Amino acid sequence: MAAxxxxxxxxxxxxxxxxGAFFSAEEDDIxxxxxxxxxxxxxxxxxxxxxxxxDLDVPLISTVGFAPHFMATTQNWTLYRSTVVEWEEFLxxxxxxxxxxxxxxxxxxxxxxxxxFGLRVxxxxxxxxxxxxxxxxxxxxxxxxxxxxxAEIGVEVVDPRSRIIDETGFQRKELCEVNDEIHxxxxxxxxxxxxxxxxxx
Length: 201
Known about the structure:
The protein is mainly alpha-helical. Helix content is 45%, strand content 8%. It is globular.
């Protein structure tokens, strides 16, 4: 909004909302199962003078599924942490990948449906911020799987990580939203926007 670049859209829900069965597919459209979410989505389409998502003639930018902090909730991994001997090997194992992909299944179905409509779909990697209740190792490993799985479907993945992290591998302090453990601030948003423009949007 501040950059005054024409667009339509905005947040539909919290990251955790997209790890369950959050949409239904129709012939040329998708319907979000939560009424307030679908109402917002219909409003975005109306702003573009269309009724169905398949009629989009502009890129669709999404962060659906890109909430590794939710996947990485520490309680989900306590058993593995206490029983796995080689933790790093586990994080690169097919078992770990299968677990992440199972959690990601609804989001992957969403991206497959959008790509089946012939849309240009662009996804953005998340802020590099891990809240206290999440396992940082799982966060880092899971986000790479998320990006890879989405890209294999045909989604273009924009990855600004090299521009936003410090020597710790996490988001630079000046790019973090104040009093918020998860999100980036406006300065982070400008970097993401720059990446999107460089990507040809």
